[in-house]
Amino acid sequence: MQEEEHEFGGPRVVDERNEVTYSRYGDHYIRTVTTRRLIAYKCRICGYEQVEEEKEVYDEEVDIISIDGIPYLLKHNQLSPLERLNAPSPKAELEYVSVYNYYIPVNFIDEEVMSRVEELVKEVDELDNRIRYINDYDVYLTKLGRLAKKVTNETKEYDSQHDLLHVTEEAYYVLEDGTSLTKEIVEYRKYRCRKRSFQTEEGEWVPQEECESMVKEVVESHDYGEIPTYKTDFYINYQKQKDSLMRTMKDLLQQMVRNKVRVDVQKVGERVKIKVDNDEGEFIYNWIDRTSYYRGKYGPLAMLFA
Fold first, then answer.
1. Residue 264, beta-bridge partner list
2. pTM attached to this predicted model
3. CB count, 10 Å around CB of 283?
4. 218, 191 in Cβ contact below 8 A?
């Protein structure tokens, strides 16, 4: 009996699965990703399909931390963003708690310092609310001592008999309590127009109207002492207060950590490298993609020293 001949075509992936396991390696983990693929080869002559399994194994050194109880993975030897892990995940090597914009290891927390930091956070939040509130308004009326939004209404009337266009503009301010005050009423742009036509290079006649401004008159005006650049007096002042509070908060947190452990800090350009009890960490903020990158289990702590 003659054995049937086969001519197999190119491979086709019919199934692919990834298995992830973790194992301890010194002071961190080895993350092993095993990819199993079922590859099918189909005979062009008889249609018979042959299936084979391929296995690919990839190992990488990683650190597992938790922030506010949520587990994350970090590359051990290179900068990487925080990668949230799904359950079940291995035990975290270091537990962090988020404090305003920073991550602090739980075992470095000093309750007395944290109570002072919490007071500063409340003051910063209050200033943020004031800044957002001020941003909702256009001007500050000094003589009234009030913030206000500027609104402008414009009406037009054309006098065809005298070829005059009367434009009346009313500007008023809506105050914080919703009441409105008229700032001024201006009648302006009275025109005397002349109509003529000119010929283009293509020989086409195009109509044109030339108008000359004649009068601008303030009909009614009220002086409330408007300061269009009120932010120089209020917004920037609040922002300076906020920056000062943030610096104080950061100094307190840095000193709290240094009271618990020896920290060596090295800044290289935009990168911040730290060494905590001989464990290295690194942090960098990428301004292009607005993402923070960390290396090692102390990478998130390095952000505090940026």
1. 275
2. 0.65
3. 25
4. no
Do the beta carbons of residue 181 and residue 224 sit within 8 Å? Answer: yes
Is residue 167 within 8 Å of residue 187, measured between CB atoms? yes
Counting beta carbons within 10 angstroms of the beta carbon of residue 272, is it exposed (0 to 12), middle (13 to 18) or buried (19 or more)? buried
How far, CA to CA in Å, does 73 sit from each of 53, 65, 86, 125?
Answer: 30, 7, 10, 31
Measured distance CA(298)–CA(256) in Å, rounded: 16
- C-alpha distances in Å from residue 259, one per residue of 110, 221, 251, 255: 9, 64, 12, 6
Locate 44 and state its tokens: 């062009």
By the 10 Å C-beta count (0-12 exposed, 13-18 middle, 19+ buried), 110 is classed as: middle
Could you give the 3-state DSSP secondary structure of residue 95? strand
The SS3 call for residue 262 is coil
Which two tokens mark 296? 């090692």
Length of the chain: 306
Mean pLDDT by 10 residues, the chain (306 residues): 52 79 89 86 70 84 94 93 89 93 94 94 90 82 81 83 77 84 72 71 80 66 66 76 94 95 91 91 91 94 94
Please tell me the predicted confidence (pLDDT) of residue 190: 63
- The amino acid at 79: L
**Alpha-carbon separation of residue 117 from 106, 109, 127, 180, 302 (angstroms):** 15, 11, 15, 42, 19
Omega before 88 cis (within 30°)? yes
